[in-house]
Amino acid sequence: MTDMETDSKTSESQFISARDVSRLLNINEKKVYTLAQKGKIPCTKVTGKWIFPKKELERFLHRKATGTLKKFSTEFALAKNILLIAGSDDPILYPLQGMIHSLHRDFVLFSASVGSGEGLRLLKKSFCHIALCHLYDYEADDYNFSAIRALFDNPDEVAVINLFYRTIGFLTKEQQVGSFEQIVSKRLRFINRQAGSGIRSRVDRIIAEEKIEKNSIKGYGDEVNTHFNIASAILSDRADAGVTAESVARYFNLKFTKLFEERFDMVVYKDSYFEENIQIFIEFIKSSTFMELLATMAGYSSRQTGKVLYPKNQTSEG
After folding, report:
1. Contact 132, 264 (CB under 8 A)
2. Exposure pattern of 76-107 as b/e (b: 16+ CB <10 Å)?
3. The predicted structure's pLDDT at residue 65
4. The pTM is what?
5. How many CB atoms lie within 10 A of CB 267?
6. Is 188 helix (H, G, I), strand (E, B) or coil?
7. Which residues on neighbouring strands pair with residue 162, listed in sequence order?
8. Which residue of 88, 151, 196, 203 pairs with 115 in a disulfide if CB–CB is 3.0 to 4.6 A?
9. CA 224, CA 200: separation in Å to the nearest integer?
10. pLDDT digits (tens, 9 = 90+) for 46-96
């Protein structure tokens, strides 16, 4: 066989016929030609005859299969017996997964502590069912609504439900502090929360109000994602002070100085509010079990737990 004949055979083996494609895709040949004419599958036309590049077609099928798998995974994850929560962190959330599952054996809750702002962003992209947040607007003296209006194209498509109020303050092991000025003057090492979290935004505001330069705070750039991470850094002597929930201070028997009380909310799309997984969670936070849990941990108030909230200018209080 000559080199020319070999090249010709090799070239032919790189292409397959419409009949081969119909067998590969399990469709009739007429459908293959329709897909070819619409440019839906890799193909080319030579002397009036459709031929199909084998390797390109195999890669095309692989991409389609991968896309189908991803779509299936997403649909499975968003099934009604699974609840995906993302956003702010709070110690009260840790036992919830087991408690809710014990009451609803076919129901599973997953949560990710990624910060209030990131939780809202993930909700907007439908990567979670519920966003947890406590982003304070100083001008409005209200939580979360300004952030929602800034992020969502149609803010009216989401609902805000209160989970609880909680007390936030300075956490220390040795020297009790009540300001960042004291942290700087005593040369204490600070451990910070991640950018985009509700605690971080309040910390930055307090620092600005005290007229403290951020770079004068030793450890300002050291970030962690949870309240327990703050306590862990202090207990292991990697830091001297942080800002966290009162419940963490009481749990680890550390010193605590109150800074403020804040509202902690959940945000959901209104069109999914009555879906089973969302309702199971809402029913649980209204239950005596959840109220008793809040009562046993320091620094929580359930005065609006389970209440659907609106911006202050839409309430009867004005």
Report:
1. yes
2. eebeeeebbbbbbbbbbbeebeeebeeebeeb
3. 52
4. 0.74
5. 24
6. coil
7. 265
8. 196
9. 10
10. 877 888 887 777 777 656 655 544 554 455 555 568 899 999 999 998 898
- pLDDT per residue as tens digits for the range 141-155: 999 999 999 999 999
| Tokens encoding 10 | 């090799």
The stretches of the chain forming alpha helices (DSSP H) are 3-13, 18-25, 29-37, 54-77, 96-103, 116-124, 145-151, 180-185, 198-209, 227-235, 246-252, 276-285, 288-296
82-314 shares the fold of 3-69: no
Domain segments of the chain: what residues? Answer: 3-69, 82-314
| Residue-wise DSSP of 60-82 | HHHHHHHHHHHHHHHHHHTSTTE
End-to-end CA distance of the chain: 92
Residue that has been written with the tokens 């609803």 in this structure:
104
- CATH ID of 82-314, from 3.40.640.10, 3.40.50.300, 2.60.120.650, 3.40.190.290: 3.40.190.290
pLDDT tens-digit readout, 178-197: 999 999 999 999 999 999 89
Question: What are the φ and ψ backbone dihedral angles of 217, each rounded to 5 degrees?
Answer: -95, 110
Alpha-carbon separation of residue 296 from 4, 134, 291 (angstroms): 85, 22, 9
CATH code for the domain defined by 3-69: 1.10.10
CA 234 to chain centre: 26
